[in-house]
Amino acid sequence: MKNITKLGAVSALSLIVGATAAFADNIKIAFIDPLSGPFASTGTNGLHQYQFAADHMVNEKGGVLDGQNFEIVPFDNKISPKESLIQLQVAIDQGIRYIAQGNSSGVANALTEAIAKHNKRNPDSRVLFLNYAAVDPALTNDKCNFWHFRFDANADIKMDALTDVMAADDSMKKVYIIGQDYSFGKAVAAAAVANLSSKRPDVEIVGNELHPIGKVKDFTPYARKIVASGADAIITGNWGADMLGLGKSVIENGYEGPIFTYYAAGSGMTAAFGESAKDRIRLISQGGINPIATEEARATYDAFEAKYPEGNIDQSRIFNVIGMLAQAIEGAGTADDVVAVAKQLEGMEYDSMWGGKIFMRPQDHQAIQDMHVGVHTNENIDFDYDNSGYGVFTESTVTMASMDSPTTCKMKRP
């Protein structure tokens, strides 16, 4: 009996050691975004999309290289640049070589600078920054670096496409611009002014203001100013709780025109807006959901909703991040040499299941892709958000938006 017990113990120990070794071989991706506070729902839904994409696109298909899986490791940054830098160091100390972040360009600016400094000082533990949603144009212009890749279109690219649609509306005479008071909000405002001035010089900008990010509990004073201005259209880059608060307030205070947005869908917002925002909120985004682009995308969306009934794929670019990273690692033949992986990402053309190609522009590491302008509606919706019956239906598409747009990036390569 003792020999059997010993044999069982040895077998159990072997299983534990084997499982530990397999776990250690995972390619870890640190997810540094808000998982608490006013933007927790946005961060949590993004985390679920990363975890699902890693499993669905990589792990369930045998992993990469010799069977290595992707593992998403969450870090709560509380939307704070300072906290993000602390979490970055924790991730690096854990041996993680891939950093994913997207919520807040203020955070992204802090991370990209810190990562560049770390990589210069520590060539044996370099990391790559996979930016999936922070769209301050400076990140791929004056602040660009070799270690940063942006998978979303920047604020200038999005505004160029959005104002193409706006400019075609002859009834639009007055526009109000409002946003969050940090680098991204300022970039959106600057791009809106520049584009409207060149495309529709007859349009009057009747308001251009910023408000504190994540701190406004009642947007009524802002909404009343917008209504009093006589604006025919609103432009905002607000996201998360700030987008919901602003949107609901302007509608409740009698504004009846279109609201042109960057991030006004999913994470509870679509359900909260409901019928009140029908044919009112318009959204610039990549990746078409309604109509769905491919059968692969349809199957992916169905599988995600089965696993996360309360969530939605509202950031399809996350799946592009995972797919392109997997392709780059396979091409490099390693996940440990991030320089080799980065060189595979540079210039990559990737066929996205959400429609069209993604081109990672080598001179600035800015992803170039199709841009879609959609409307909040409950008509012709195959895939809704928040189980609300409402979603975003694509009304127009700009193919490979801003492919030849200029960049001031002067990238130094290792």
UniProtKB/TrEMBL annotation:
Residues 27-373 form the Leucine-binding protein domain. Keywords: Amino-acid transport, Signal, Transport. The keyword Lipoprotein does not apply. GO terms for biological process: amino acid transport. Residues 1-24 form the signal peptide. It comes from the Bacteria. SUPFAM superfamilies: Periplasmic binding protein-like I. CDD domains: PBP1_SBP-like (cd06329). InterPro entries: BCAA_transport (IPR051010), Leu-bd (IPR028081), Peripla_BP_I (IPR028082). Belongs to the leucine-binding protein family. This is Amino acid/amide ABC transporter substrate-binding protein (HAAT family). It comes from Sulfitobacter mediterraneus.
